[in-house]
Amino acid sequence: MTETANAAGEKPRKRLFIKTYGCQMNVYDSGRMRDLLTPLGYEPAEAPEGADLVILNTCHIREKAAEKVYSELGRLKPLKEEKAASGGAMTIAVAGCVAQAEGAEIRARAPVVDLVVGPQAYHKLPEFIANVHRGRGDALQTEFEVEDKFDALAAPARQIDGYSAFVTVQEGCDKFCTFCVVPYTRGAEWSRPVDQVTAEARALVAQGVREVTLLGQNVNAYHGAPPAGREADGAWGLGTLVRHLARIEGLARIRFTTSHPRDMDDDLIAAFADTPALMPYFHLPVQSGSDRILKAMNRKHTAAEYLAIIARLRAARPDIAISGDMIVGFPGETEADFEATMELARAVNYAACFSFKYSRRPGTPGAAMAGQVDEAVKTERLARLNALLAAQQTAFNQSMTGRRLPVLFEREGRNPGQIGGRSPYLQAVHCEGPASLIGHIAQVEVTGASQNALSARLVPGETRAA
Ligand code: SAH
Ligand code: SF4
Ligand code: F3S
Question: Which atom, in ligand 3's list, is nearest to the CA of 101?
């Protein structure tokens, strides 16, 4: 360690600013980076001005996401100079998927960067940063050491910052969809052992967390080492893990994301029926409704197989809300292929669905394919798809009007006297209510709905603070 303790034996305080881009796994990773740095005296800052350490935790999924990093680095340059002029030093690290994908190019393009650290190497941040301060060590750290990483992170130091928390249970992807960078940035599929996941979930619940969302790039491919004493079981699947976690006292709600249609099994579908803590909301990306395009995407399933999974889920849990991801304008997509996507969306009737214009990613097979679709065509198709998805989401939300729902209140609302939380179906809910309900589940009656939220009132007398 480079810093010396002051007279009171306290380490000097340093300001840490982390900016997070991309998916929920990056949000989780940013939290863990903060945890790792807290014992070194770093305290979270709301803004980069004057920070001692700035970490950009980046996303490479679409071109726009990756380019944001460079504009942010441009904004950080004068701040780093100001800090130096006042006798201090601002260390700038680029972490996450752009770090993994672009590596040394980042420092070539943005010399302001001191350290590039990939998503499988960040558990060694304290060592890397000490090396930067000493002017030694390698500024590029992009080894794949996923197992070491989770061992190093095994004891969560996290202080509670909400009642809903992420827990990564699986990382990496072996699917190689032809549009996607994730198999290259996150490496091969790997599952954390059940005992490690359980210990982390317990520690979070002990801090007041009421809901965990299990994360993985292919979370339903989970096959973790069984708990000690249960070695004979062999690897546990996600359904078994969910039932195991549901027994943690105080853990009211479990969710998971993101799943792949190819990894759906009966046991996981059954868990939606037999495990009340597993919330009735399921995110199952399909990407396209055209079998020809699905094949070119290397999704390894058809539209009919996807619809059959949705039907099985609905048979097991009739009220389950389905969400998904769609890509428009994949190379070779014709008007008829796009119409098949619209048709599939109509058949599913999504509660929520994310839609993206295909973005050509260097190094992926899709980038080299013939038949790249015109930007204007992509824009026009996306608008048509979005109009359909927005109408579906609005209709889903409006179908809740007049119903009673249990809401996990997580925060104060926008207006004074308001509190906000989530329904079982992941809808944002706002209602008048006391701040003392935050961190608790209470019954509400839905009084109104828009595309993005429900308004509600607390059910008098029945408010069950659990
Ligand atoms: N592992 C998850 C999430 C992958 S990234 C999964 O398999 O679903 C999240 C979403 O981004 C994907 O589902 C896809 O819809 C979208 N996406 C990925 N690569 C893309 C690209 N090159 N262009 C546009 N959208 C993309
Ligand atoms: Fe990307 Fe496909 Fe893997 Fe999802 S399943 S992370 S879309 S390669
Ligand atoms: Fe982006 Fe990496 Fe997540 S590319 S979506 S941050 S896995």
Answer: 4
